[in-house]
Write a structure and sequence with these properties.
The complex is a heterodimer of chains A (about 80) and B (about 1000). Chain A has no helices and 6 strands. With about 80 residues, chain A is mainly β. A 6-stranded antiparallel barrel of chain A has the order 1-2-3-4-5-6. The interface between A and B is medium-sized, with 13 and 18 residues.
Chain lengths: ~80, ~1000
């Protein structure tokens, strides 16, 4: 079952040289990114409250398949979706 | 370093899609050190001339192209490599637009066959056929499409386009596209499908998309782009996006090398060849015609005229313009043979050849006009010849051109209709989905600038956003219109010379460039304009002939009648061409024109150039001897002597450039054009440097040179050429002469040719009454289709009654031909006109002559309705008692159905009350001293807020005696703005201002009449 956090769970991410997520910590455990399967960005709703995010769907060495996003306005990272 | 050139870029000439002017994109590319940039607007090259100009200014190479919409809705990017490619692109765009609704394009694939030469094709964005089919998982179709394009364009001229915008799906798409290219031996090229120069401008692009789909941003989720990645990216940013495709990035630079050397090359070779007798050369035939005309038009011509003619013919021939002159001469010859009044305007009037061939209305030698303003040896552009024709008969001339040269060789120049403050506000507010009160606040802010009222809402974020977006979108092209008269004629079929598309008017096509674009590209445009005053002059002469038997040839007038000048000098000029405005009326009594040259000055003085350049007051003071004529430098004297040391005419810019800064005539012309052009700041700065260097080399101190240049800059381009003003001054004199000696037929003609001029028909009609002329109402038993001269008065025609079109008038006149109408029932039975139009005739007073009150007739009309087919029956009206319309009601309903009233002036009805209140009439003001506080009432007939007036507002109040000019200062205006725009009958209290005989009122308090 997929778990979804619409506003995301704040997480700490270490980026790799290409500014993509390299590893992150969630629930006290560090997860190394092994594959980024999809990348997309949104920039919308600027006429109300701008939502500008870079999304990454990725797999980790711990067997997670997740969607993270970086808020490009604040540069903060969030976990938004966890796939079973 | 990785080189990258953007080859897929949309400007705001991808209408309601691209979010930048071409100049901004070029500046962006230059800032990113791109050596070139392509412009690939959707199915159009509207922006090409501005793009090329900007690219040259920025030192980067412009690559021309377009993103075509193919059948199936697929996109394909085309770039021009050479002249053949340009012709093919023009042809393909024209075919894509052919028979399509306005603003749309769809190119049948079969059109590409045989038209790919000289073009480089890129496979397009996600909407390209190959990308689309790959995204749909149909690789076989993608391969088939790629093979087809490869076959059409050739392996070396077809490239697979790779784009990365962080959009879902592209992580598979890019490798698949690259794989497909590899399997077919095709090369890839990266592009970014640019729609804005910088990321933050994606907001404007979203708004444009919403406007294009007539919806709001909220409702346009699936129409908008998902993110802000479609901006002009640097080589480094593209390298980061495509680490796996370095060759595809390098290919962009290689393609730019291939396509970046093409230059547009138009000019005289594009005109059709005029058929001369016996195959004589154009130059010889023009010489023969001109020399024959010299003896005919200037019997015993002076040596100076012979020399000038020889000189002009040499320059014309050397410039390759003989054929062009013959084409124009033929047009004028046709018009004159048909009795269609016409004359050249603009710089063509500077040419003796033009005068001799009846193209220009005045002998340039007699008026000191400079031929070089029209044509200089080193001038790189072809001069426009603008011809004015009787507005009612211009179509005959256009049809003649079609017949002569063929429809496929002719199209009209387009106009690019741009967003203005108001239209921008309406559309942007709708896109943002804003509440009406915010839009109203914004409208107010636009109207009057920041005021105490609007200051209160400046904290409102929505209002900020709205105003910011409106500011960005202002001046953006919105849609295409058709130029009033600019025609492009080509020897080869036009659609392969420049793209064309259907105009709104059936049977007409427009080229994709406006007049500036055509001029820049060097394509010759011929202006075939309709001028209302020429129609009015023609009709006046016909009426004079008809009513008096007198035949008048206006061409024989000698411009020296003191009575005509006296009339102009007292500003009795309502209805006179060009000198009737309020501003003219304020100036003429001071200028006191007494010769033709003064008329030239008068119409040149009240122009934004002289006004903005602060030339008007110095000129008037010098003219009146109130200040000495001085020059900033002695070298300016030859250029400015005739206008007392101030710059009035465009030609003077050329003379100053030559005498003061040592410019060649061609450089001077370049300066004049730059000063009048939009977005030419960089060019002006460059010219300023040359001007200052040149002036100092001639011995002028730097500060004086700078000062002179600033004067020229302020003068700008919004001014008349002396040659143009001279042509127009002919019409000023002719119309003034007719007003003075043949008032009634002239005014009848003016009324029949509305709308034209400064004043509306109601003011003209009141002016006639003030001149003691009887203006008679429309009468079903006396009026004709148009207004007529009757018993030395003016009889209004049916053309003034709402709803009376040609068919209705024909039925009425046919019915009347049997016998006069005797009653409403009789009228209805014999004309069978619809109820509304009969009602309008009743309200206009057209049936007053039966002696039945209008209200009775309206009631009777109600009872007759539906009985049109029945026999004539006597209708009982005896017992009915309806109060007649009051005089004021009658005036108001007449204005409603005719736009004017023949009865008393509305103010005359209020006069007893106004006298009681001590409110003055316009005629009484002369008796009061300047500075006196007075109150005046009137009907508002004109509102003006010229941009040159620094927030001042001007209104003209009319009463039964005349007109009063009212000046409303910005503070007073902001206080009474709503009232001024909602109430037409006003009482203005203010301070009387007088300059000689010119009177105006400086408003202090304004009230609506009836509440004063």
């Amino acid at each position: 079952m997929t778990r979804l956090w619409p506003d995301g769970q704040p997480i700490a991410v270490i980026s790799n040289a290409g500014q993509e997520p390299g590893r992150f910590t969630w629930q006290g455990q560090t997860h190394q990114v092994v594959e980024i399967t999809k990348v997309w960005r949104v920039d919308m709703d600027w006429w109300r409250r701008r939502v500008w995010r870079a999304y990454y769907k990725l797999r980790t060495d711990t067997g997670l398949l997740v969607v993270l996003y970086q808020d490009l306005l604040t540069e903060e990272w969030h976990l938004q979706r966890l796939y079973d | 370093m990785v080189d990258y050139v953007e080859l897929h870029c949309h400007s705001n000439f991808s209408l309601l899609d691209g979010a930048n002017h071409p100049e901004e994109l070029v500046a962006g590319a230059a800032a990113l050190d791109m050596p070139a940039l392509a412009l690939t607007d959707h199915d159009a090259v509207y922006g090409v001339p501005r793009f090329i100009r900007a690219a040259r200014e920025q030192g980067i190479r412009p690559i021309l192209g377009a993103e075509m919409t193919l059948e199936g809705g697929y996109h394909l990017t085309l770039l021009v490599e050479n002249q053949a490619g340009w012709h093919n692109l023009c042809y393909l765009i024209s075919r894509a637009r052919y028979n399509r609704p306005k603003g749309q394009a769809l190119l049948p694939l079969k059109e590409l066959v045989g038209c790919a030469n000289g073009l480089v094709a890129l496979s397009g964005c996600r909407r390209g056929e190959i990308a689309t089919t790959l995204l749909e998982g149909r690789r076989d179709k993608a391969l088939a499409a790629a093979r087809r394009y490869r076959r059409l364009f050739g392996r070396d001229n077809f490239f697979i386009e790779l784009q990365r915008h962080f959009i879902p799906g592209e992580e598979q798409l890019v490798p698949r596209l690259a794989g497909l290219a590899n399997s077919l031996g095709l090369l890839c090229v990266t592009t970014n499908n640019v729609h804005y120069a910088t990321r933050d401008q994606h907001r404007l692009q979203d708004v444009l998309v919403a406007i294009r789909h007539r919806t709001s941003l909220d409702a346009a989720t699936h129409l908008r782009r998902p993110n802000s990645e479609f901006f002009l990216k640097s080589a480094a940013q593209m390298a980061a996006l495509f680490p796996d495709q370095p060759q595809a990035i390098a290919n962009s630079r290689w393609l730019a090398e291939r396509c970046g050397h093409f230059e547009l090359d138009y000019g005289l070779q594009d005109l059709p060849q005029f058929a001369t007798p016996g195959g004589m050369s154009s130059g010889s035939y023009l010489r023969r015609l001109s020399e024959e005309a010299l003896l005919e038009r200037l019997p015993d011509p002076p040596l100076r005229a012979r020399e000038q003619l020889a000189y002009e013919l040499d320059v014309i021939e050397q410039s390759g313009l003989s054929n062009y002159f013959l084409i124009i001469w033929d047009l004028v010859r046709f018009a004159l043979a048909q009795g269609i009044r016409c004359q050249g305007r603009g710089s063509a009037a500077s040419s003796l050849v033009a005068y001799l061939l009846h193209i220009g209305p005045v002998n340039p030698l007699a008026h000191g006009l400079v031929f070089e303003r029209f044509l200089a040896r080193e001038r790189s552009t072809v001069p426009d010849v603008d011809l004015d024709f009787d507005a009612n008969r211009r179509e005959e001339v256009i049809q003649y051109i079609y017949e002569q040269y063929g429809r496929e060789h002719l199209a009209m120049a387009c106009t690019l209709v741009t967003f203005q403050a108001r239209s921008a506000l309406r559309d942007v507010a709708k896109a943002l989905g804003l509440a009406p009160e915010i839009v109203a606040e914004a409208a107010q802010a636009l109207d009057s600038g920041p005021t105490p009222e609007t200051a209160a809402v400046t904290d409102n974020a929505s209002l900020h956003l709205l105003l910011d977006l409106c500011r960005q979108i202002e001046d953006f092209p919105r849609h295409l219109g058709i130029h009033s008269g600019g025609m492009v004629i080509t020897g080869a079929p036009i659609m392969s010379r420049v793209p064309t598309e259907p105009a709104a008017r059936p049977g007409r096509t427009v080229v994709q460039w406006d007049k500036d674009g055509l001029e820049y590209a060097g394509l010759i445009k011929l202006d075939v304009l309709g001028l209302g005053i020429l129609a009015a002059l023609t009709e006046s002469l016909a009426l004079i002939q008809e009513t008096t038997g007198q035949t008048i040839d206006l061409g024989q007038l000698t411009f020296d009648d003191p009575a005509v000048y006296a009339m102009i000098a007292r500003a009795d000029t309502v209805g006179v061409f060009q000198v009737e405005s309020e501003a003219q009326a304020q100036m003429l009594p001071r200028l006191k024109p007494h010769c033709f040259a003064d008329l030239v000055v008068a119409i040149s003085l009240i122009r934004p150039g002289p006004v903005q350049g602060n030339m008007v007051h110095p000129f008037m003071r010098r003219r009146l001897g109130l200040e000495a004529v001085t020059y900033l430098h002695p070298l300016l004297q030859p250029a400015l002597e005739e206008t007392l040391g101030v710059v009035l005419f465009q030609e003077q810019v050329l003379k100053i450039a030559r005498d003061f800064a040592g410019f060649s005539p061609g450089q001077g012309e370049g300066l004049r054009r730059a000063l009048g052009a939009k977005r030419a700041e960089a060019e002006i700065e460059r010219l300023r440097d040359s001007f200052l260097v040149g002036a100092q080399a001639q011995g002028a101190p730097a500060d004086v040179a700078g000062c002179v240049f600033e004067q020229l800059r302020a003068f700008g381009g919004f001014s008349f050429a002396k040659s143009h003003a001279t042509s127009f001054a002919v019409l000023v004199y002719q119309s003034a002469w007719l007003k003075h000696y043949h008032f009634v037929p002239y005014y009848v003609a003016l009324l029949n040719n509305q709308p034209m001029g400064y004043w509306n028909a109601a003011v003209l009609s009141n002016e006639a009454k003030r001149h003691g002329v009887r203006v008679m109402p429309v009468d079903i038993n006396h009026s004709q289709a148009r207004c007529t001269v009757e018993d030395e008065g003016i009889r209004l025609g049916f053309n003034y009654v709402k709803g009376m079109g040609e068919a209705q008038v024909d039925r009425l006149l046919a019915g009347r031909a049997e016998r006069p109408f005797t009653s409403l029932a009789d009228f209805g039975r014999r004309t069978r006109l619809g109820r509304t139009v009969v009602e309008n005739l009743i309200l206009a007073g057209a049936m007053d002559s039966w002696g039945v009150p209008r209200r009775h007739l309206l009631w009777e009309l109600g009872t007759l309705h539906g009985q049109a087919d029945e026999l004539a029956l006597a209708f009982p009206t005896g017992e009915l008692s309806l109060s007649p319309l009051s005089a004021a009601e009658a005036i108001l309903v007449e204005q409603e159905v005719m736009g004017l009233s023949t009865g008393d002036h509305l103010l005359a009805l209020h006069r007893p009350w106004l006298v009681e209140e001590g409110i003055l009439s316009s005629g009484q003001l002369a008796a009061y001293p300047a500075g006196q506080r007075v109150r005046v009432a009137g009907l508002v007939v004109v509102h003006q807020s010229p941009p040159t007036a620094k927030g001042h507002h001007f209104i003209t109040l009319e009463d039964e005696e005349g007109m009063t000019s009212v000046i409303v200062r910005p503070l007073v205006y902001s206080q009474y703005r709503r009232l001024l725009h909602s109430s037409r009958l006003l009482v203005v209290e203010g301070t009387l201002q007088k300059q000689d005989t010119v009177i105006s009122l400086l408003a202090r308090h304004i009230t609506a009449m009836g509440t004063a």
